């Protein structure tokens, strides 16, 4: 059975890196700030295959008003000197990509005008989790 990836509390029981990621995300209230965009942590941390220096904390968000989303990001994270905001196409979907660093964790937030569960990163997370879990006989 797949974890409820919309709630990152499963990270509290994970590896040391997962626990550190949980602490950073919760202490900075990242997912709380993005709550209205249905954020889901994707990528390597939920799978416990995070590689320091190569991986980031990926967060997928459901964004229909890019301007309002960007304003929220600027209001909440503009104090991070390495904040970058770009608009681009990802898999032919108009996307807003935000990057910055928190406590040595690179953060990447991707907003797309799709239900978050239909976004490629979330679909990949579910498939990859099933593959990893089968390999490690978790499920």
Task: For the record, give the distance between the C-alpha atoms at the N and C termini, rounded to a whole number.
Answer: 6 Å
| Molecular shape | globular
> Mind telling me which CATH architecture this is?
2-Layer Sandwich
- Main-sheet strand order equals 1-2-5-4-3
Counting DSSP E segments of at least 2 residues, the number of strands comes to 5
Can you tell me the residue ranges where pLDDT is under 50 for at least 5 consecutive residues? none
Write the layout of secondary structure elements.
Blueprint: H1 16-27, H2 30-33, E1 40-42, E2 57-62, H3 66-77, E3 84-90, E4 93-102, E5 105-112, H4 120-136
Features:
24% strand, 5 strands, 4 helices, Beta Polymerase, domain 2, five-stranded mixed sheet
